[in-house]
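B., you asked whether I could sanity-check this one before it goes into the benchmark set. Here's the sequence:
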Amino acid sequence: MHVRKVVIRRPPRPRRQLPLGSGPRARRGERALEGLRRTFTLPEQTVRSFGASLAPWRLAGIGVVLVLVLAFSWVRLFHLGPPSIEDLRRSAGIDEWTTLPIGVKDDQPGVAYRDPEYGTWSGFDIDIAYMIAEDLGFRRDEVRFYGIESEDRSRMEATDLEQNPVPVKLVIASYSITKEREDMPNVMFSESYLHTEQSVITLHGHPPVASLEEFAGKTVCTLSASTSATTAEKSGAELVRRNRVSECFQLLDKADVDAVSTDAAILGGYKFLHPAKYDHWDLGDDRTEPWGVSVGANEALRDLVNVTLYRSCTDPKDNRWETAYARNFIPEAPLQTSAPGKPLTPLARPQQPVTKRPDVRELPWEDLTP
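And here's what the prediction gave me:
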């Protein structure tokens, strides 16, 4: 075996070139320059060192802020606080409904009326029902109206054209909000959507009427289970109760009763259709009848209805309530008198009742209320 020896030659180390004049004076000058260089570069090194030491703290601070923002957003959107629209819809069960059945009156022109010939619905309550249904996500052809009697409103049970009982989700049927009704087990009202007052209609030519007390000892027809019946009864009048206001007018037309008394917004439609037959009298009663939407025991549905009423009340771009009032009550107003030149009987306040803001959490992608 032969071993080959390899010799590695390193290049010669370069000698340091001394500046001209490499004596002690030159070396001192070089050391002075080196010291100056260290002196002037020290602040920059110090700043770099100090900045580098803050970098972890800056990153930690940004991380804490992000965590807080995410935590706040999570709590706001999905957990604590009042329910969102999605929460209310889920609780109310709306997304499982294919149609929206609503109990309404069917014999109150200007309020809620079904044309017997064409089967079409019209009136202020009908327009309010469509407004609420639209915000709940139902098209007009998905809304089902069923006639409901006054005494059946608390049971949330209407009837179809074959007189079969039909459970409904909403009752929008000139239903006045009272403490006694709110205490009933299956009655829960929304905020009021109309303010009216009680009045009286007689046959044309009746002596002037200023109060219900003038009918003491006389017969007055009113609706069963209505607030008007209580007021008429206190006046000393002999009450004749009927489930339908149209039945009261049938009695009045035959002079079987002396007058019909209920809410002015209801009576105004009959005066409008037959201006020469009836006289409409203002009782001067300051007590108003606030109409509300009953949702049975569905609290989430009530809150959703209130969202619609609040939006229509406060949003300047939402004129659905005003349109409903103008379509149904404005044309009737000029005829609400006993004779030309006599004072007009007011039908209802021309402003939507103030609705307080519902306690609903507004998600960033939702546009609920102003």
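One thing to flag: The domain at 196-289 is CATH 3.40.190.10 (D-Maltodextrin-Binding Protein; domain 2). Otherwise nothing jumped out at me.
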